[in-house]
Every structure is written in structure tokens, then in C-alpha cells.
Amino acid sequence: MSDSLERLYQAVLAARDLDPAISRTARLFQRGPAKMAKKLAEEAIEVVIDAVNGDTDAVVRESADLLYNLTVLWAAAGVKPEDVWREMARRELMLGIAEKLPKSTVKAPKAIPDKEASAKALPKAVTPPAVRRRIVALEGRSLRKRH
User: Fold this and answer.
1) Domain endpoint, select from 79, 96, 116
2) Same-domain check for residues 72 and 116
3) Among 127, 131, 90, CA closest to 110
4) Same domain? 54 vs 120
5) What average pLDDT does range 31-38 have in this prediction?
6) Among candidate residues 34, 60, 28, 30, the one with its CA nearest the CA of residue 47
7) What span, in angstroms and rounded, lies between the C-alpha atoms of 77 and 119?
8) Using CA atoms, how far apart are residues 78 and 4, in angstroms rounded to an integer?
9) For all residues of the chain together, what is the average pLDDT?
């Protein structure tokens, strides 16, 4: 997956200076980070609605849109995919790949600059926090997307 996102990221960088009249990516860059953030939020909401409604095909389509808009925002913010992968690796060492870092119960170490440093910077075994946040699921009622 990281190869696909890296290719997408490179394509976004290549398209940002194209003619906004023919390139959606260039148009987003021209309109700025606020418009990029709005598009990202819209796509995230569409993924959620489709998931709640059980429309798997739509979740796949909207997730592709979400990843595209996330990549555009990354490029505008100067964030590279490898920056995100490094953060994911750091978190995996702390809590495991399937866990999100708690907001306040665990003090997270600073970002790790590279793979070699990650082995030295974090302890071999990190005990997960004793206090876990409650998982809240959306109710199964039907939601509709706005178009």
C-alpha cells in the first residue's frame, strides 16, 4: 500500500503546478489549505455514511477519494508519506499496529528520524496504559449523503 500512496503523492506533486482549468489537483492547490481540508472532511464523512449504511462498494470508492484528498493536504503541508510511516512504526513499537495512541494517558516519545534510530529510541517492550478509552460505535440507523 505504501508504494501506491507514494506514487499518488508523486503524482500530486507533479500536478500541483498544472493549469487549474484542467487539473483538479492544481485547482485544490490554487484554492489553498482551507479548501483542501474541506474536501478531505467531506470525503471522510461520505466514507462514514457509506460504512454505516453497509454499502461496501461505496466505502471503497469514497476511501480512494479520501486518500487522494489526504495526499493533497500532505503535499501542501510539506508532509511526506514516509513521515507518516515513521510515525506508524513508532506507534507500533509502543502499543501495537492496531492501537491508536491515547490522547493524554501515555506520554509519547518524540518523532523518530529514521529506522536505525527507532530501535535505539524506544524500549523493547512498552506496557500499554492501564486506563483505556471506551470504544463508541455509531448506531445502525441509516444515514444519507448530501450531494
Assistant:
1) 79
2) no
3) 90
4) no
5) 96
6) 60
7) 28
8) 19
9) 79
